[in-house]
């Protein structure tokens, strides 16, 4: 008896299986919320897919008029037209079979179960496969998910800090929204507000690393909470989003350095975590009402 291959990533299976006959482009994002994406041009086929520890979202980008797809995820065959923008979920750990007729260009997003756990924390369903089953019964349209999948695809190529922040934020929003669409009731939060000791850890971490890139996942880990729980609890406790608070803290440090030091503004911007001088100037003006140079002239200690 031939032992069945155990695939860890759907993208690896896609490259090495019968799907390899189709033109495909792969993108692998290994940041704080890892995921993979595939854009593939498909024609007629009848293939079987293995179970993998990843949730897969499939969205046609374009399709011929006669294109149809049928799928069996263990509970009988279902079928639908491949309408651009309509989405179908393949939950993690589910074997499936697919019959496709006609041409289509498909965008696939694969989200590891570990990424779901990192984002959701205590809100992670006990049975994520069963929880997402309603979104595997038929295709569905959701403009927010469409936009987020396209955003993730385009931003996954960029390597600067703001793009990485955008990717983490988009993935967190997408996961939360998809679970809500599946009808999953959120578990009551045991602690709605942010405990003082957790907030203190966040303050200490930021003060020690203010010169570095800091994203929402890093802040959540400093607090010891999931991204979703931390974001909600922080805003309730502090009154602003973590990102807005972090920007204000960077500017507070910059104001201290301007007032009491003689470093060039470009060096102050870098030491406060701003990679681009233009970004520093824009945020400084938003917080203080003045550009850095003008504020320096008015407030520097002589």
TrEMBL record:
Residues 200-298 form the HTH araC/xylS-type domain. Pfam families: HTH_18 (PF12833). InterPro entries: AraC_XylS_family_regulators, Homeodomain-like_sf, HTH_AraC, HTH_AraC-typ_CS, Tscrpt_reg_AraC-type_HTH. GO terms for molecular function: DNA-binding transcription factor activity; sequence-specific DNA binding. Gene3D superfamilies: Homeodomain-like. Keywords: DNA-binding, Transcription, Transcription regulation. PANTHER family: HTH-TYPE TRANSCRIPTIONAL ACTIVATOR RHAS-RELATED, TRANSCRIPTIONAL REGULATORY PROTEIN. This is AraC family transcriptional regulator. It comes from Caballeronia glathei.
């Amino acid at each position: 008896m031939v032992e069945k291959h155990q695939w860890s990533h759907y993208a690896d299976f896609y490259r090495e299986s019968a799907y390899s006959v189709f033109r495909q482009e792969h993108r692998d994002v290994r940041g704080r919320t890892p995921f993979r994406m595939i854009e593939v041009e498909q024609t007629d086929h009848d293939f079987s897919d293995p179970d993998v520890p990843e949730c897969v979202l499939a969205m046609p980008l374009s399709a011929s008029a006669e294109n149809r797809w049928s799928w069996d995820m263990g509970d009988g065959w279902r079928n639908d037209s491949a309408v651009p923008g309509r989405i179908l979920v393949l939950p993690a750990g589910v074997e499936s079979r697919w019959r496709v007729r006609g041409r289509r260009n498909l965008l696939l997003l694969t989200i590891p179960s570990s990424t779901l756990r990192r984002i959701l924390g205590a809100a992670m369903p006990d049975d994520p496969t069963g929880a997402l089953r309603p979104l595997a019964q038929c295709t569905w349209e959701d403009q927010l998910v469409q936009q987020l999948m396209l955003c993730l695809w385009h931003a996954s190529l960029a390597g600067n800090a703001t793009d990485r922040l955008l990717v983490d934020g988009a993935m967190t929003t997408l996961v939360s929204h998809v679970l809500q669409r599946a009808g999953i009731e959120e578990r009551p939060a045991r602690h709605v507000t942010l405990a003082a000791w957790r907030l203190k850890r966040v303050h200490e971490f930021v003060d020690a690393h203010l010169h570095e890139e800091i994203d929402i996942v890093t802040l959540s880990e400093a607090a010891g909470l999931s991204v979703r729980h931390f974001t909600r609890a922080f805003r309730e406790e502090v009154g602003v989003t973590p990102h807005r608070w972090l920007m204000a803290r960077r500017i507070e440090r910059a104001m201290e350095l301007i007032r009491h030091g003689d470093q060039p503004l470009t060096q102050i911007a870098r030491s406060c975590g701003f990679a681009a001088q233009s970004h520093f100037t824009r945020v400084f003006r938003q917080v203080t009402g003045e550009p850095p140079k003008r504020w320096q002239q008015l407030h520097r200690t002589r």
